[in-house]
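How a chain folds remains the central question behind the approach discussed here. This step matters because it turns folding into a mapping between discrete strings. The sequence in question and its structure tokens are set out directly beneath this paragraph.
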Amino acid sequence: MSHHPAELRRSLGVVDGVAIAASSTAATTSIAIGMGTLVATVGLQAPILLLLAFLPMLGIACAYARLNRSEPNCGSGYVWVGTSLGPWPGFLTGWVNIVGVIIFLAYTSAVTGSVIIQFAIKAHVTSVVGIALDPNSTATSTVIGLVVLTAVTAMAVTGVRSATRLQAGLLIFEYAVLLIFCGWALITGEHELSLSWFNPFAIESGTAFAQGLVLAVFFFWGWDAAFSLTEETKDVGNPARGGFIALFAMLGLFIFASVAFQREMSLPELIRNGPQALPYLGAKLAAEPWAGVPLLALMFSAVASVQSSVIPTARGLLAMGRDRTMGPVWTRIHPRYGTPAIGTVLVTAVATAVALFALAIPKLSDMILAAVNSIGLVVALYYGLTAIACAVRFRSTLRAGVREALLAVGIPAASGLALFAIGGYLAYSYLTGTDHFELSPDNGWFMFSLPCAIVASGLAMAAWAKYRRHSPYFVTGRGTDAEGLRLPMDHPAGTAS
């Protein structure tokens, strides 16, 4: 029986876009967990790496904004790359983004559980129903984190506007805590500010530079989540405004925090504390109960980032379902809430399965490091493809003057190629850095195998969509029109020719 699926509900403004983009980027979580890893990789040159990583991110944000004006669609890169570069790279762009987010959800759920346990221990709660609470236990942290994931999924299902408003409130608290504690460290820290912190040539090797830059790019990952809401915004320009505001806010916070950390903590301290760097900073600067406030901010950030990752992933799968590159289950819009409810629940279910599988890696820190490093390569791939798609689509502007050619073609192309070069060099380093395979974040072959598996699975799924589903996307290379083209499944134009 033919039917026209319900529409997504247009109710969001710029503030909602900023909230979803900033929550998905999760500055507090990135600073708390990633700063120690980044410093362990590049030493005290973390501030300049974050600044350098921002440059291609800014170019890619320009590409996203221009593409969104031209073709607003909740599928974003999946649709844009498919139109400009072809359906195979387009599908791969959508697929690797979705799989990357699901892996992120799996380990962020464990991080969230670990932070909640730390907070419970501070409140002198050391066990629940006879189970000892250990923040370093991957199993316990994962189970608690998955309970949180389930709760925030329920909120995402019942209305994205209420979810973004909650995230906005959490963000205000987080950023206030970051500014206060990092500002305090910046003023009272005993380690002198050094210009060498902003000298990329002081990094010991090209491999460390490449790995550090991919990690720094990963810090910024998530600002593009605002574009997944383009069909739910009142103005088509709101996603770009939200994305840019979030991106520049992240740059300021990341550099401010990295300098503040290095003012207060020595290099060995930063490396030793790793994912505990922010709670350690709080304990070093203040007495209880104030020392626990950064931990509370980290908990809020982790919860918000989990929810803001579920929301855009369900929309990406909705766009793919509309084109029949994925199943029709992803296209179902809840008649009351105006959200892809079933898709949102399914994303959570898949992330839960991945999180439980990840328990095979015994230490939580190992799981985090493996996921961060691997996802960094995947992020570089899909951002790079989207930027190149922008340059290809608007190549006619090369005759429209220097400024237009630079903004539409030059900067996006340079940004995409820069990410490809960084990712390629890091992949080469992984392959040549070891001579055997081992399930460890220190093993290069293992680190390279995960993104390769994601890409291979994407190609397999694309082949299935083309040859078994007979998706029209692989005939036209275009996604379903977001402005209202909702072809029934049995309509002649809705089938592959």
Notes: The domain at 14-466 is CATH 1.20.1740.10 (Amino acid/polyamine transporter I). Confidence is low (pLDDT under 50) at residues 1-5, 483-497.
